[in-house]
Description:
Blueprint: E1 10-11, H1 25-28, E2 34-38, E3 42-47, H2 54-59, H3 93-97, E4 102-107, H4 112-135, H5 142-155, E5 159-160, E6 173-176, E7 179-181, E8 195-204, E9 207-216, H6 222-240, H7 249-261, E10 265-266, E11 272-274, E12 281-285, E13 301-304, E14 307-309, E15 315-317, E16 324-326, E17 332-334, E18 337-342, E19 345-348
Helix pairs in contact: 4-5, 6-7
Amino acid sequence: MVAANPIQPRLLSTFLGDCRFFPSDSTHSLRRLFHFTSGRDRVSMQASRTFSGITSLLFNRSTQKSADSKRNRLKPGKVSPLRPVPSDIPRPPYVKSRKPAGIASGPEIHDEKGIECMRASGKLAAQVLQHAGTLVKPGITTDEIDQAVHQMIIENGAYPSPLGYGGFPKSVCTSVNECICHGIPDSRALEDGDIVNIDVTVYLNGYHGDTSATFFVGDVDEEARNLVKVTKECLDKAISICAPGVEFKKIGKIIHDHADEHKYGVVQQFVGHGVGRVFHSDPVILHYRNKERGRMVLNQTFTIEPMLTVGSINPIIWDDNWTVVTQDGSLSAQFEHTILIRDDGAEILTKC
Length: 352
């Protein structure tokens, strides 16, 4: 994977995004790490180099915990060349335009044809993630996982959504140990005792399906196992309350309450998002307690993807402009599903 030790790290102020982007404080009452420029149908972003420790003072309840001294901090590995995609596989619009990553305005609400397309993309994403999980073991590199994910996606006539999104160079995100998200697959071999989040998104028949899970590498200690368990519980609890008319802010409350109960930090700078014909769109799903407005709508699709930490919730971004790690090197875990709002609750589209 990648590391912060040989790099002069930059502490990020509050920024927002799922494992890919960050929202504007003008619409979500948050400070910005990224500068946003409004357009007619999207918000574009350009990274800024803002430094701030105020998030820790206001929100971090676990900064007294130090990073696990038994684990070595991540260091950057070698990133292999871009993997080719057959020319007959449709690309998302951002691949050809090379526009910066951003959140498109307007929710993803589908007719029956759109719902079936979302089910198909969600099913493929789930199958790819499941396959990737079977590869996780000591000695395999995250680049090898990327290769397998890339091959399975294109063999199914789909495009790996991360590839070329805002300049991301790989087909999947692999976030090891203290990496909160956006980890770029590279030559680092997974080690016994690691945990790794694998974040898969596929673009199939014009629709994105997005999911992630955190996996154990070999013999993992109890601290890591419990963090992963509670993070998954946070996602499950959040999905269980979703239905037409439910306020989005209830997602953040139920996740934050459960994390507090187990004394874990909730990363506040990354969010869930609408997903469908567009990779990232409204609504922005906050995973912590908030007072934002908005309610769920029938036939709407979006992701929920809480990220919990053992220690600091402050993120640091590396010089690759993607890899985000905890300030103190403490473990972070994440789970994600794409869900569809139905009359009787939420249908998980990315569940195998």
